[in-house]
Every structure is written in C-alpha cells, then in structure tokens.
Amino acid sequence: MDAGNLSVVSEFVLLGLCHSWTMQVLLLLIFFMLYLIIVFGNIAIIILIITDPHLHSPMYFLLANLSFVDMWLCSVTTPKMITDFVRENKTISFGGCMCQVLFVHFFGGGDMVLLVVVAYDLYVAICKPLHYSTIINLQKCIGLVVTSWTIGFVHAMSQMAVIMQLPFCGPREIDSFFCDIPLVMKLACIDSYNLGILMNAYSGVPAMTCFIVLLISYTYILLHSKAGASRALSTCTAHITVVLLFFGPCIFIYVWPLSITWVDEFLAVFYSVITPLLNPVIYTLRNKEIKTALKRFRSYYIHPKGNIYCPETSLEVLQIDNILTL
Q1: Paired sense of beta strands 11-14 and 91-93, if any
Q2: Does residue 68 contact residue 45 with C-beta atoms inside 8 Å?
Q3: Structure pTM?
Q4: Rounded to whole angstroms, how far apart are CA atoms 267 and 293?
C-alpha cells in the first residue's frame, strides 16, 4: 500500500478510561500504586534470583524472565495512562502510538510463549520428577526463552509492517488509554474492515493456540501428578487463574466479532496491569524456596549481624514441593 506515504496525522488523542475528574484522580492513585508494586516487586524477584545461589536453576531462570517480561509489558502502557489522568490534552505522537503497538505485541507475544514454557517445566517437574535434571537444563531453558523473545519480535514486526503502510489523514481519536491494532486501524483512511479481521485473526489465533496448549498441559498435570491430586489441583488452579486473566481478555478483544468499547477497555486493563501483578504472586512468591531466599536476603543484607547461614538443600529433592506451593 503506497498510500501509507500520504499519512498526515502527527498525533492521536487518547480518550482514556473515563471523563469524570473525581474518578480520574481515584484511578490515578490506584494505578500508580499498582504500577509501583508491579515494578518493584518484579525487580526484587529478579535480583533475588540472580544473587541467591540456591535459585540458580532452570525453573527460577524461567520465573526471572517471566517477571522481566511482565514488568515491561505493564510499562508500555501504564505510565502513559497514569500521566494522562492529570492532563487535559491526552495526546500521543504518531511515533509514540506506533511504539506502543509494537511493544505491546512484542512483550505480549513473548509472555504467551513464556507461560507455555513455564507450564512445560511444571509438567516435567511434577509428572517426571526423577528425569527432571536430564530433561530440563539451563541450556534448554535459554533456548526456550530466546524462542519466546523471537516469536514475540516476529509477531510484532509483522503487525507493524502492515500498520505502518496505512494512510492516516483524518480521524485521530482513540477510544482507549493506549494504542492497539484494532483501534488504530479504524482511523485509517481506507476501508480496513477485511484487513482488520485478518489482523485480529493473526493476533487471536496464536493466543488461542497457547491458551489451549496451557489448558491441556495443566489438565494432564492434574491427572498424572505423582505428588497427590489435591496439591496438584491447588497449583494448577492458581496457574489457570493467571492464564484465564491473561488470555481471556486477549482472545475476547482479538477474536470476538463484536466490539464493546467499555468492555474492551476493562479487559485491556486486566492483561496489561492485573496479570503482571498476579504473575509474581502466583508463580513466585508462593514458592517455599523463594520465601527461604527472602529470609536469607534479609539476614545477610538488611540484618547482617548474628545470623547463621542455612545449609543448602538439594534442589532435586525439593523440586516438586517448591513448584506445588507456587
């Protein structure tokens, strides 16, 4: 589409979540606190996993990467949303809008694949505990993480290759708090209905695929757990909750044929803010080894005097207990 060179729109207007000043102040305080918790919580988890030798294992390497991706996924849209609550003129430059589209799909696509990788690690640890160290190793985990980043990058760049070719020469109001493909395509100065369906399918099909794979994985883990159905049910229920909160909104926005603005905005908040908040809690902070590492960290870095270092416990022996207490 050579018409892309005719784009004259230099900025877009984000209509935000609401128009009431009182409600905007309330949402500012809520999302500001949530954002601080997400950023500092995920940074703390990453630092803890890096600095504690007991956590230098494939499982925690994956969880550190999950925290890293969640932190950046939230950071793509939330700071702009927070600052817009106190701005009368809620505009975003054309370049800034395109960057939001790029990084939302980059980190979002990578997060989807990484959740599947974490589920695979969980499956091996619970269903094949005696073979865990031979099936899962750091080199394989690095390869899987690189694959997740690569898939996210290819997915995002292929989307951008289409969006950047569209002509934008008229409407510029986006009825949301950030730029996303379905919303931006509506502003193009061409009939983009069929192209919009194709682009939504391109985003929705990978989300549906990962979602189905995850549900099958957790169901299989539940049915074939060697550590007790009740403990496996507790673990899988918590993980499935995160999966539903992340993939449910994505599938609804990109696959569901009907578009209801307030519903789309509500769901967008879930996968861009709520899920990055829950992931550290569900996947990491409920883990026994992480709790023990936090105690060691406080003992040696916050209260260094008069503390006795706990002897290292075999990770292979504790692998199932650690994961089942996520």
Answers
A1: antiparallel
A2: no
A3: 0.82
A4: 35
